[in-house]
Fold this sequence. Notes:
This protein has four domains: about 5-140, ibrinogen binding protein from staphylococcus aureus fold (Roll), CATH 2.30.310; about 155-230, Helicase, Ruva Protein, domain 3, CATH 1.10.8; about 290-420, no CATH class; about 430-640, no CATH class. The protein is α+β, with helices and mostly antiparallel strands and about 650 residues long. Strands 20-21-23-22-24-27 form a six-stranded antiparallel sheet, with helices on both faces. Helices cover about 40% and strands about 25% of the residues.
Amino acid sequence: xxxxxxxxxxxxxxxxxxxxxxxxxxxxxxxxxxxxxxxxxxxxxxxxxxxxxxxxxxxxxxxxxxxxxxxxxxxxxxxxxxxxxxxxxxxxxxxxxxxxxxxxxxxxxxxxxxxxxxxxxxxxxxxxxxxxxxxxxxxxxxxxxxxxxxxxxxxxxxxxxxxxxxxxxxxxxxxxxxxxxxxxxxxxxxxxxxxxxxxxxxxxxxxxxxxxxxxxxxxxxxxxxxxxxxxxxxxxxxxxxxxxxxxxxxxxxxxxxxxxxxxxxxxxxxxxxxxxxxxxxxxxxxxxxxxxxxxxxxxxxxxxxxxxxxxxxxxxxxxxxxxxxxxxxxxxxxxxxxxxxxxxxxxxxxxxxxxxxxxxxxxxxxxxxxxxxxxxxxxxxxxxxxxxxxxxxxxxxxxxxxxxxxxxxxxxxxxxxxxxxxxxxxxxxxxxxxxxxxxxxxxxxxxxxxxxxxxxxxxxxxxxxxxxxxxxxxxxxxxxxxxxxxxxxxxxxxxxxxxxxxxxxxxxxxxxxxxxxxxxxxxxxxxxxxxxxxxxxxxxxxxxxxxxxxxxxxxxxxxxxxxxxxxxxxxxxxxxxxxxxxxxxxxxxxxxxxxxxxxxxxxxxxxxxxxxxxxxxxxxxxxxxxxxxxxxxxxxxxxxxxx
Length: 643
């Protein structure tokens, strides 16, 4: 898929609105033709902006580096910490300028999204500082130190077109749909949709159109353009055997194509363009290994042929030797006997003499014999040669086994290379995901602190009158809140108490049989009594405490789906099994957090239905939900939310 000019205008407007006030916090090289900008805002979620030779878009997928990008070092030097002050399109062309401002400097990044594409970094005077591809053609030159030049601009500006402009179509014999596409810079899908809306045959020659036809084409052109640019979309991801495309709304005949609704045109582009980048990356990573595989496959084929050929030859030599013994037993003692000559002919064997030496030639192999020897002695010579050839087969088979082993290694290497091209989903987190959290069996939200700072935040920012507050009887316990729990759900209380103990120091120390307690919000005092001090993340608890005994140190990690979004949830086993698609249950002791997280992810990857989703979740997200301390897996399975 290539972007149309009107689609680029929508992206320029949409991205410009969404990144207002953001600055560049990091820049990553993804491939030789693609760069990822991480944009940060002090109050809003980070945004990932992909900038490639075939377009730019906001992405939720962070692809691991596939290839070196030679622009990245220069871009980091010049653009880090700068703000994006402007994004604009050049006319209707597939060219975008992004202006970066900061430290009294201004830089312009040019994206050319046509042909092979290009990315060019310029200063504010449009002098080229760095670029992907140098160009030296008749109409322009692009190189470091030169001023950036636009390519020759052609056609009409679709955003400023008038009815009079369109009337030029009446002077051509070209099919109307072709003239519309070429003159307005539109791909076939939009040109055909314009003709369809205008109720005019697309193949009608331009000079056959009436004034009324042109008015209808003009109205349809304006309608299509405004819908695309203004975001009046019903976006679809369309696939067929030859090509995939993202449509802002249905155009043309899509009934016979595999189409899927997507949440937005941007999301559709993100899905498709990310697939393209990953596929290109897999090809790039495996190309060098593929060459080695082809070489060793050819070697293996030749060795197999050699074994077959030698086997055939040894069989033939043995057969001839046996025939000679039979002839000898019948009193035939010379090679010039007609029966022996006939046998040689039938076995595709001949006698040859070179410099007075006699050879039996079997399948091109010359075997020296002594014509003065007896027939049994000559047969014995042939049998010995057959055994010698069989030993050669053993040598070839040994080499073949080595080749097979090397080939297997290269094939595994190719698989590893392909699987190393992965991405992680950069999703917008719910507010509670900054804390420990899970949903109870009764559907109530339970949140807890990760450290002193988040303990304080949980109580000060999120405690409400209908909540319950939990704490374990151990120093180093988080505060947990069971939200909206005024109905006194016993199971939710037990589960939150269980989580409070498991996420405390008890997990790391392996301390079983601890109690947790819960109190009401009005029993929590955020200020210390006069003359006393309480540490950050600690609070004074007054009045009666309601104790709950927690016998086991056991948690489950689950894959939780909310709408189109997936996240990892960790809590007591029962609510995780009830609320999640898959789960892995862990107990205290075993592997340190990073190693445990890797093993848990591998366990989830055994569930093939959501394999790609799980692959896209980073190890950091698994580590983030685990309790502090060592863990080991005791069980895994399918949860109640599985399809």
